Structures are given as C-alpha cells and as structure tokens.
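I need you to check the entry underneath: sequence plus fold tokens. Let me know what the token row says about the fold.

>
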Amino acid sequence: IKEIIFNPSRFQGTILLKIFGILIFLQLIAYGSSVPGGIFLPSLLAGSCLGAYLAQVMNVYGDVNPNYCAIIGAVSLLSGIQRLNISLCVMIVEATQQSGFLLPVIFTAVIASYVSNCFNKGIHDTELELKKIPFLQTYVPTQLSTKTTEQAMNRNVQVIHLRPTVQEVIELVRSYHNAFPVVSKENPTIPVGLILRSQLITLLKKPNLMERSRQQEFFYKIQIPDNRVKNDFELPLTETQKNTVIDVES
C-alpha cells in the first residue's frame, strides 16, 4: 500500500489497472456477502491505483506528479463511496503526512461527494435502507422538498377515547402506529391529548390502573409486539375482562 501511494511510478500502468479491477471485484463480493472484510483500506488502495494509472496516462501530455495523483484518486474514491468528507480529509492528511496538500484533498472530497450524490446515496445510507433500519437524516431529502404535510399524513386516523375497553386498547396495540390521539365521546373530532403505544401496553400489564368492579379482579400477561411487525396475538380473556374499562385520563 505504501509503495503504491508514495512511489507509484515503480509500477506499470497495466499492473495498477489490474490491481484496481481485482480490488473492486473482491470488495463487492466481500461486502455483498456480509463478511467483515473492511471497505476503507481496499477503497484507499483501489483509488490510489486508479489515480496513479491516470497520472501515467497524463504524463504523455505533460509532467504530472504520480504521488499526488495517487492521493487524489484515493480521496475521490473513498469520498464517492462513503461520503465522509471531514473525517476522510483528516485521515488522509495524517496518514500521508502531506499537510501542505490539505486544500486539494478537501476540494477533491467535496467534488467527489457532490457528483456521487447526483446519482445515488452513500454506501452506509444504502445499507440502512436495505436492512430497513429507520434513520433520520440531518437534512431534508431532495425528493421531500415538493411534498406537503397533507401528503404525509394518514387520513384514517386511529384514535382512543378517554375510557376505552381492554379489547379496544388491544386492537390499537396490534396496529403499526406508535401514538394515538385521545378524544372524548362528546367531541371526537378534537383531540385532548396523545398517548404512546408503550403507555397503552403499560396500562394492560398493570391491572391496578384499570377500573374494576368490587368483586372481580383479574391478572394476565401480555406479550409486547415488535413495533415493526404486526402481530396478531390472542389473549386468554373472558368477555368480562375484554369489556373492562381503562381510565386513560388518570
């Protein structure tokens, strides 16, 4: 790796191009198979090979420093794949001890990241989407800039009354929603509060929070469903237990 980055003129252009192709091919196989083979160093070496090869090609038209081109190639490929501009610039400058080369490194990282964003997202963002892991970005995506709040909201709103029954609460817990507006039966169109799904589960698991008759008490356990999976679970409850009223307001 050091020889390719700091002294790439020792290698022929065809060898550098072959190393680049082999590294990219093996990197795709390793990353796609979920084998922990790393992505930083292979991308660094592949980018250095490509930059050094282009330096040898441009030497036909003028004197080009292959060392600088190898560093620029490594930065451009890493920034295009990972989009870690700030940390990438610091790591490259520290690793190469080329502090005077900081401005070209920053310029290359910004340009590579901007061009890559025009085509797709970074590899880490793509992996989060493939694994369906929710992640909130620090900026608003471009495709949402033309959307309105009305388009994102659900018209079929599931609400909960101030004094629902156990069966009604169980049906709400089974849904995908994480929070429910609380309304009164006198005016069901105006919400008086908001209750979380986790709070409803707590109410179900603690029978002392329920309104009970003087002679009847019951205790039961409820399995907490996964937020991302709609579980159709059944509870061994009698009709009296299902019709028991829960005081949400208290």
About this structure: The longest strand covers residues 191-196. Residues 30 and 214 are 65 Å apart (CA to CA). The chain has eleven helices and three strands.
